[in-house]
Specification:
The chain is of the alpha/beta class. It has 13 helices and 23 strands.
Length: 441
């Protein structure tokens, strides 16, 4: 998309002809501005459409000219600083910042308007990055050749590191050149660690950033609900589920007693009532599935997952979009979180009747919207035993599980680890993971 600026022969930009401005905006957003969307209004007369198309094609086939870059800006580099690029995918940039845990960050970015806005947005969310005290922004060109001239180490500056994972290969090369000239560390994110490439061979365990912070880099209006006020209800539900497993009872019955807990359906109120051994009562409604989303988020926190959020919603920005799509949200994610080096998404279905495969396909697509390598999981009350399957059309693996796994933290950890291992294997070998199944307790 940006090779034109450096006079290279081929442009890899994808151009999409759209019949309306609404679809053009949708294509731009969903492609993260990697596709160039152009409106060829279907209502125009044919000769006008052809005229506009010829103009576009003439522009595309015109040879690019090298645009001289202005003198590079100077950016002083002090002690305890991480230097890195902002790439098209913001996840590696955020993960590098979170894992290096240095108080000062120099965030380099290409000088186009879009990347400048994204860099400023990330810097404005600095308070959500643990340990970061200051972020400096430095603009460069697509080649990165200005970086060694812009970055000026202060006298006596120490503990300075470069992470070359984000950005183009040119950016990585020039940042590496600058770091080695001054004896600074060069690091790269691996699938399981942050590894030092020079001068030593050190490594740090890699942890994922907050997925909600990641979403807000592209969708500033993304919001999550907080249902921690219902933790007593969730504790009672999980305790009763475990008691049902131990006593061989079906928790989904309209009336069940196990481990001193009782659950019954109140027909007049249209709600479930849970009574604890101490006599405390809780009511919850089944409609909408909100209770299951909160319970699932709570269970994954109990299992050791970090940055877990429930009911994450991204609204449409314009009223015309809301009217066109007949809904207030462009994306609705039930549960998201981080597990070791990756993010995960759980889609919750509080039913035993809905077909599982379409729900799993939707879950996979939603996970990819969260992050390229996010792990998809489907919590479906109709699942009798958990399993990991590979979707034939996308090669993505998805874990199916039900209430029997939800109440056991060790089982949730096992599922996440199996998905993570399969994902790392598929990234290394580009082959499908094997389908496996696990028996319930």
């Amino acid at each position: 998309a940006s090779r034109e600026a450096s006079g290279q022969l081929f442009s890899r930009m994808v151009h999409v002809l759209c019949p309306s401005g609404t679809i053009r905006d949708h294509v731009r957003d969903e492609s993260r501005h990697k596709a160039h969307a152009v409106v060829i209004n279907a209502q125009l007369p044919r000769h006008r459409r052809m005229e506009k198309l010829r103009t576009i094609m003439t522009r595309l086939t015109t040879a690019a000219r090298v645009v001289p870059y202005a003198a590079p800006a100077v950016c002083p580099v002090g002690s305890d600083t991480l230097v890195l690029m902002l790439g098209d995918d913001v996840a590696p940039t955020l993960n590098a910042i979170v894992n290096h845990k240095l108080p000062h960050v120099i965030l380099c970015h290409t000088a186009d308007e879009r990347q400048r806005e994204r860099a400023q947005r990330l810097a404005s969310n600095m308070n959500h990055l643990p340990g970061v005290e200051h972020i400096s922004l430095l603009a460069t060109d697509i080649t990165g050749c200005t970086l060694p001239h812009s970055l000026i180490p202060e006298n006596g500056a120490h503990n300075i590191h470069v992470n070359i994972t984000p950005g183009t290969k040119g950016h990585s090369a020039f940042l590496t050149l600058w770091a080695r000239r001054h004896g600074f560390g060069v690091w790269s994110l691996d699938k399981s660690a942050v590894r030092m490439l020079a001068p030593d061979k050190n490594a740090l365990p890699v942890l994922s950033c907050d997925p909600l912070l990641l979403l807000r880099q592209s969708h500033p209006a993304a919001r999550a609900c907080d249902m921690t006020s219902r933790r007593e209800l969730f504790d009672a539900l999980l305790h009763q589920m475990r008691a049902c497993l131990e006593e061989g009872k079906e928790w989904l019955q309209q009336e069940v007693h196990a481990g001193g807990y009782s659950k019954e359906w109140l027909e007049t109120e249209g709600k479930w009532r849970i009574t604890t051994p101490a006599g405390k009562r809780f009511l919850y409604a089944e409609a909408g599935g909100e209770w299951l989303e909160g319970l699932t988020a709570y269970a994954f926190r109990q299992a050791g997952a970090t940055h877990v959020h429930e009911r994450v919603r991204i609204p449409w920005e314009h009223a015309a979009e809301r009217q066109l799509h007949q809904c207030a949200f462009r994306m609705d994610m039930d549960v998201i979180g981080a597990w070791k080096s990756v993010h995960f998404l759980v889609s919750c279905k509080a039913t035993t009747k809905q077909t599982k495969k379409p729900a799993a396909e939707e879950c996979v697509q939603m996970a990819q919207s969260l992050s390229r390598f996010a792990l998809p999981l489907l919590c479906h009350l109709g699942v009798a035993q958990w399993r990991v399957e590979t979707m034939c059309d996308s090669r993505a693996t998805v874990a199916y599980f039900g209430w029997r796994e939800l109440c056991r933290p060790e089982c949730l950890r096992m599922m996440l680890d199996e998905l993570l291992t399969g994902r790392q294997h598929s990234r290394a070998t580009s082959s499908e993971s094997k389908i496996s199944s696990k028996e319930t307790a």
